[in-house]
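Notes to self after the call with IL:
- keep both proteins in one doc
- input above output, always
- annotate only the second one for now

Protein 1:
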Amino acid sequence: MEVVSNYKFQVLEKIGNGGFGFVEKIQLFNMSETHSGLYARKVLEPKTELKLYRERFKKEVMCQSQCHHKHIIPIYIASINSEKPHFIMQLGIHDLQELLDNDALEEAEKYAVMDALLLGLKHIHDQGFIHRDIKPSNIIMCDDGTFKITDFGLIRRTDITKELNPLTAIGFVLGTEEYLAPELHYEGNDYSHKSDIFAMGKIFDKLNITHEGLQKIIKKCCKMDPTDRYESIDQILIDIESLDGVSAA
């Protein structure tokens, strides 16, 4: 049992690894141990001593906490200036990659994934951010059946002039290759809402939804040339609203 500030927790198992940290499943207790619950805890790797990465970890906490939304994993407790920086957040039961690998999604759940991504990512964009790492393993299914976006480790402001961290500067290509917008491979291009939309479209494509109208929308999200893609998620929602038999998120 570990004690931090005014709570105690017990690590049950490691459930994920990232570039500069890892995620554990924990049981969290109050100090008198009369109440407890299961949560996820993300920890910055102890060997990560560079101030640069500690600042990025702090930014991850601040941005994810700022984006309050039903389709974004909430952070409940954060200890970012301690010797072992970490934060505690909602625990999911599956990530979308697991569900896709096991062909475990019902048709209604596929539409729920689309709704969650559209609304969650729209909220992130509306707050002035680009997520930069939209992929199935960062979409979490919670025990109530809702899907939520997580892992804000690569998040950046839409306006690059407001960024001070060199890891977020133009020229640093980060993210997962399969979901990386094609234009980011060429010098002079930068992340944008459109690069997030490309990644989202690639996820939608993996859902194998057969609705013809939605297929056209998904293809437009995934256009190789960013000028042919949607400008914003609002535009996507308008096109979905116009489809027969499909409700916009």
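Protein 2 (the one to annotate):
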Amino acid sequence: MTTTTSPQGRTELLRPDRTPVRVLVVDDEAPLTELLSMALRYEGWEVRSAGDGAGAVRAARDFRPDAVVLDVMLPDMDGLSVLGRLRREYDDVPVLFLTARDSVEDRIAGLTAGGDDYVTKPFSLEEVVARLRGLIRRSGSAVAAGRGESTLVVGDLVLDEDSHEVSRGGDAIHVTATEFELLRFLMRNPRRVLSKAQILDRVWNYDFGGQANVVELYISYLRKKIDAGRTPMIHTRRGAGYLIKPGE
């Protein structure tokens, strides 16, 4: 998998043959499936859907997806059973579970069975897209083709995903590993408001148990480094979250 950068600053993921990433969406709720498929196609990805477990297995064999979005509750078999069948043939494809159940036991069951991540309904489309992008990249199939193609740009702020270098207006900015991940998440979603919960899930992977104050703390760290003495780029939307956009 290679990456390129769109004019909006969003990193595009591509297969080795330069064709779009493929995602299989499995859910028996047709309106939800269509809405999610539209959001993924907006990312430039190729999407195929299935409404039950048997259809999912058939689609996976034919479509060869790079990632799977899988509902836990399906009409013919549960998502864990579908995952087991997929894993026997495609042991490295990332799987993101969708479920209406939010108990710790359900989450552990899904992840123990081989799922890579877990989103509870109702969810935001932005969250699902962000989770999928992270899963695809972390799977090892998303490798930057070369310097420049792995660069995120928002206004005069530049982040190189390969070298972990950050600069604004040509001036180098030193950031810690956690600050880098937070800034990368913001820059992958320019002009989009990201909630504290989304940021916690994406950057800290639940490690802080929902302690939103850690997000505020690291946002303040980034502001001191990115915005100090310059037109602010990182903005707060009270009651909603944070976003990054070019300085105006």
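Annotation: The chain has two domains: 20-138, 149-242. The longest strand covers residues 22-26.
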